[in-house]
Amino acid sequence: MSSPATRRAARSPKNPAPGQGRGAAANGAGLSLRERKKVRTRQAIRESAYRLIAEQGYDSTTVEQIAEGAEVSPSTVFRYFATKEDIVLMADALELDQVLRERPAAEPPIVSLREAIIGSMRMLSQEITDELLLRRLQLIGQVPALRAQMHEGMDHNVDRLCRALSERTGRSEDDLELRVVVGAMVGALAQVMLDWVNRGQEGDLLETVERALAVLERGMTL
Prior knowledge:
Blueprint: H1 4-10, H2 22-27, H3 33-56, H4 63-70, H5 74-80, H6 84-89, H7 96-101, H8 109-127, H9 130-142, H10 144-169, H11 176-198, H12 205-218
């Protein structure tokens, strides 16, 4: 489990705790005008999608309708999200391998992996509300196409993380131990998020993710 000092550092003004940074992210604090516009556009598309899905169901909601509700063109929607599933899954929010590559080079690989996952979750919490995250996870549980896409996305993240860790450790991307460790951590993240929904959003999600990854880390080395 991470130490109190580690948690304090992780929740410094530069890296706020869940909820603390959401207002700043929504208002675009610290972002350029172009980036603020991108954040607002993504938020508008997501909000339109969730509103329409709640009203008429996932299968009956089209990208054209989502675009109209967000007051953008369908081509703009596809510029931000490759598919309708990606709007719900928020595929743009969790660039795990990018966060991993930004970790200090001297940091132990298993620590870098853990912090990359936690850092990505922290960025997600700054961009969306708990309500939107809850609706996302509920839809994944209800819509088979979204569950399939989520698992495909997990496989994609495992591949990308293994590639990034291969660069850090010198191990092959196909190294069995490497893939087992990465797969376990990515799977733990997914399990914690789904359990959070099933348990009525009990407790702080980010802290629960930290606890779950700490359990794995205690028995894993790279």
